[in-house]
Amino acid sequence: MSTVYDFSVKTPEGSKKDLKDYEGKVLIIVNTASKCGFTPQFKGLQQLYEQYKEQGLMVLGFPCAQFNNQEFENIEETTEFCQVNYGVTFPMFAKIDVNGRDADPLFKFLTEQKKGILSSKIKWNFTKFLIDRNGQVAERYAPTTDPKKIEADVLKLL
After folding, report:
1. Which residues constitute the catalytic centre (predicted)?
2. What is the total count of domains within the chain?
3. What whole-number distance in Å separates Cα of residue 158 and Cα of residue 25?
4. Residue 18 lies inside a defined structural domain of this protein
5. Mind telling me the catalytic residues?
6. Which domain, by its residues, includes 51?
7. Strand pairing category for 8-10 and 137-141
8. Vertex 101: Cα angle to 33 and 67 (nearest 5)
9. Interval 56-77: pLDDT, tens
């Protein structure tokens, strides 16, 4: 059976990052957007990361412009925006597609493992996936789910 550790992703600088580097950690993987009504969730995600990173939590952000083009064209603008406006220090990666023919393989895997209410397709920015320490998808959360509301599930896995 595959795990998230079988995948590699691109950093903002364009180099490859193996998710195996996060093996043994609890992960929150989220597709993000800088110009979305849910963008303030960066603050809650950052708070969870700061509060539990010493216990093994990592938050991994994947900018995506597939939903009303709500992401900057330039990844440097995205990362600067996240740091300046929300104090984001968790890893952000290169901009990706999460749906369709060009969907990133990681997100294809995530959506196959945990379907949404109506389908596997990601409906909007800030869909969150909680990954256990074995690299398996434990939960999927809707874009409307505030990061604070997933804290209890995070604690169960830590």
Report:
1. 36
2. 1
3. 8
4. no
5. 36
6. 4-13+23-157
7. unpaired
8. 25
9. 999 999 999 999 888 888 888 8
